[in-house]
Sequence to fold (1366 residues):
Amino acid sequence: MRRSPYHSLFFVVAVLAATGVVTAQDLGTARRGLMPVPASVEWKVGRLSIDRTFTVALSGKTDERLRNYVFRVMRRLEGRTVLELSRGTLTEPANAALLIETASTGNAIPKLGDDESYKLEISDKQAKLTASTTVGAMRGLETVLQLLAGDKAGFYLPAVSINDKPRFPWRGLMIDSARHFQPMDVLKRNLDAMAAVKLNVLHWHLTEDQGFRVESKKLPELHQMGSDGNFYSQTEIREVIGYAADRGIRVMPEFDMPGHATAWVVSHPEIASAPGPYKIERRPGIFDPTLDPTNEKTYKLLEVFFKEMSSLFPDAYMHIGGDENEGKQWDANASIQAFMKQKGIKSNHELQTYFNTRILVFLKKNGKTMMGWDEIFQPSLPKEVVIHSWRGQKALAEAAKQGFAGVLSSGYYIDLMFPAREHYVVDPLPADTPLNAEEQKRVLGGEATMWSEWVSPDTIDSRIWPRTAAIAERLWSERNVNDVDDMYRRLGLVSIQLEELGLTHRKNRTMLLRRLVQGEDISGLQTLISLVEPVKQYRRYQQRPQTMLSPLTGLVDAAQADADGVLRFNQAVKDALDKNSSTRNLNEVRTLLANWREAARSLQPVMENSPSLFEAKQLANDLEILSAIGMEALSFIEAKSVPPNGWREEKLKNLTEIAKPKAALEFRVVESVEKLVEAAGGN
Amino acid sequence: MRRSPYHSLFFVVAVLAATGVVTAQDLGTARRGLMPVPASVEWKVGRLSIDRTFTVALSGKTDERLRNYVFRVMRRLEGRTVLELSRGTLTEPANAALLIETASTGNAIPKLGDDESYKLEISDKQAKLTASTTVGAMRGLETVLQLLAGDKAGFYLPAVSINDKPRFPWRGLMIDSARHFQPMDVLKRNLDAMAAVKLNVLHWHLTEDQGFRVESKKLPELHQMGSDGNFYSQTEIREVIGYAADRGIRVMPEFDMPGHATAWVVSHPEIASAPGPYKIERRPGIFDPTLDPTNEKTYKLLEVFFKEMSSLFPDAYMHIGGDENEGKQWDANASIQAFMKQKGIKSNHELQTYFNTRILVFLKKNGKTMMGWDEIFQPSLPKEVVIHSWRGQKALAEAAKQGFAGVLSSGYYIDLMFPAREHYVVDPLPADTPLNAEEQKRVLGGEATMWSEWVSPDTIDSRIWPRTAAIAERLWSERNVNDVDDMYRRLGLVSIQLEELGLTHRKNRTMLLRRLVQGEDISGLQTLISLVEPVKQYRRYQQRPQTMLSPLTGLVDAAQADADGVLRFNQAVKDALDKNSSTRNLNEVRTLLANWREAARSLQPVMENSPSLFEAKQLANDLEILSAIGMEALSFIEAKSVPPNGWREEKLKNLTEIAKPKAALEFRVVESVEKLVEAAGGN
Fold:
């Protein structure tokens, strides 16, 4: 819970601009990539050249983890600079281009509240990174990589003084490995990416209606019957934990109960609240199978399970889910109803609390702190339980007021395909928080949640990245680091750097498009998907019913939440219609509209003969109509002539049709075309 | 050694065209992707629709390997069609869309000479695949996937009767995991790709001056001291062998000796021919360290090693390298010289044969057949030794004449960056072979060789694929399947299908370019690398000295052997200058030249500020000059005016400069621009 005195970048910029020490342009280049923005940055004059003589020295208390981290950072530097650098680290600090001083190694397995702060001083002669712990040094090394710049004179690090620490101690990414199993390499590359943007918790969602993904040696029938063979062996689990620890990242498992439990009761129908038998669920949604909280067999099994998992997972926190239990099986079960009556339990929520209280005993016995979704919240629970909020800041604040620590995920549901900006503005502790200082400390941070109904190993990176970097910044940087345009600018740079780590979020997009057309020429399709986005929220399934076994290789799977042609078109229209501008320029809009027409026309015959694209045929037609409407509007605007009666209404009606989603995709430029129509006038 | 009666596709096409049963267009769609071309194809009228009801039944003798193969084929079909298909196989043949009948399972671990033949009959009602063995069925399933087509009416398989078997029984890809270590996923995805084009041998180059990559439990110091920690554990080796066997692919290891042995003698300097000490070699090239063939310790160690490796690798063949031993250490070693004198050994070649004869004993004792590069050839060796020829068909034929079986790799050195067409025309048994029928049988096939001096896990796929598919066709299909244009057309399709298997040959190219410019806009760079190719042969190192530890992220690493803009420009110039054409059209050439200019101009400022691209700055300037020269020539041609005196000479001189490689890249369009200059006339 470290809240630093406010010292924002913007403040620094203002001061520097006033003193004129650093020109705006220098500053632009130098700070181009910092994401998350550090707590304090003071730009200086000068630069530290990076060439093949670049070396690193370690001093103070150091460990294997740090040496390996430095090794990997050097390889990434090599990849970017195409220079062969030293493979070892020096012991002579004075000779090193980068000197890293760590006072202690810190915890070998990261813990909540570990000191992640660091200082970075870069001058013409040396970069000096100082941290209390190995993990702090890791965070600083990522900043060093983001500072790398190049110009006519070569590569360099700009002179700077950075004093950085996180705003929140819990900065997570939840990966749902249950609905769609994600192989080891997916987890590893995403852990690398998390470290690159200074996230520190992998919340690993391991059991669901659709799959039981963790090997249990004590109860092997659980994973054997509940996973189609797609589970993580305990060796693999340990490998992930070790890989994460080497990057300063905690791994907290989630075993969702008492609902979301179908995969549990495939092998153990006797602990369900209805007789069964059960099969692994293939559909998305909320399902009835629920553990029976009145059956001692349930607790007997869970006691064994939690004991085993507690020794497998070293983290102090264990997530028991607890969400979306609709209690249908409970309502329908006479014996459960009798139990409730007998014990004076008045509601399903109370029954769930009874269940949680029983589970809590197992967790405590094994030294674990319980965490669960909003639904587990109940003032009578012991205060060490952590609330994970999908409901929002209000629910979180209410829990905090009652003494519970909490983590926010409402607003960070990256599976719902909202653009980065919408996540970016969600603050776990907004400026108007009703909490006092003591209560505010209970808000530990947040987690982006990658629910995996509609992601495959080929597409998951593109759903997580680069948007999660915006959430990472929200959780690390000060509240008033909130310039959306600047966030997008830096997000674009971070996105490319993430590719170094093997992330496929950029490169698999064109791969999917080539597969859809079974050809090299995807230019038309690229234009189209640069203007459409997948439908938001849970509308994809309504539009396009699929199961967990369906291929995720459609056009919607290649599309992304922040369609990259949208920003440009909307800006062009804004500029063109800006009444205050002396240089109203319609040319950029015209050029873009012409591109759309060309793309649409080239696409139509391709789509006619590509059955995998049949579902999207209407989108190509709509693209041509959008272009035509825009062009017509432009002509009226340019000629300053009034459109004929009814033109405006007809076009707006067309646009309403075009705005409707098709193939689970929707155009994100309709509003700007509407603006053109409105600007053309008429009635 | 199965040579079928000649029945080429071209013959079939001619007959069908004559009878008019199938239109040319239908045929084009239907056979668009078959690569390698089957031994016999008879197209029929009709189509088998593929929709979500598509099912597979297995009958006859079947095994787990085949069921798993079918499962994977179904997932690939799903990926392409975006249809969810059945996960199981049926037992009721009559109901299946695809019926697979296998007479036997064949060898669970593939062997040389396994029956890979299959028949495929597709009608409106059913596709029937018949094979003697599981591996034959695998080959047929890849053909089924290549037959998948789509049109307005949906996906389908065209009606056809295919009777297929390979021309050569040994169709391999050698991967050098020693110079640059390649992780497991690289091997796995390349095995998948090999199976897709019906290759059946992974020749695994595991020891080199630059690395000892196989775990030895008996002599662990070998991999511990010789690999920087980058080696395959025996568990991983078995995993690769199993993965390959599941795809009908043999795995033959190579342990290179007595030369190329630096990594051996890092831990065992006592068996080298000079005292040492030795360090893992980091440079490319041919090095002195050579095992001492006169030292009994050498044989003691190798006996242990070969015994262990023989039980680890089930394949009957074991490759001992034997290449490029220059004998410098032998010449300089008085004790070795004395040994030779004493034994009457007259040359280093004889000494190597002495060494080979001793090794042969170990291999034979463990049931292995020895294979080695040309250098091991010596008429006195027992006839079961297999010669692997990097020298060429003549050397191979000479060995065959003397009774030795052989495999060709000369002409298939894919690391040398020649275009696919150059490999495609190399035939292990050319039409004018001097061998008689008996001797011809000794030519077992060929292997593409991926030497790994300049490939990283990120770039290796782009060096192997898609070109190796052309070599795979040469080794599977009949000799007269040799239409280069048609090969390229099909190669383009296969290339995209290979991406389904996780191959990165296409998608990592743009990733590397984005890293080089640290930005999204790579259009200029894409134009440039579509016109240049990496220098051929061994000139890369001369141009651009690097070591095995250098980053392979430069522009040359993103470039490819068949630059994709070259074909189009050369064709455009050819069309434009075609004197017999009534519609000489200069527009296409002009458009392309204008693109070059635009790309060059946008690139220059980018390159000025991207230190990783400094080495390639001259290429952007050259591109602009190429464009200007081409444009000038066009003007003269169009105006039918004669260029001023000296213009032609000056431009040709410029072009000579431009043709010189820079940054290990060379323009492949200079010749066509020269043609334009010549066509403009003048003197």
Residues 138 and 424 of chain B are 24 Å apart (CA to CA). The longest strand of chain B covers residues 40-50. Residues 170-496 of chain B form a domain with the TIM Barrel fold (CATH 3.20.20.80). The interface with chain A takes residues 75, 78-84, 87, 150-152, 154-155, 185, 492-493, 496-497, 499-500, 504, 506-508, 510-511, 514-515, 518-520, 546-547, 549-551, 553-554, 564, 608-612 of chain B (CB under 8 Å).
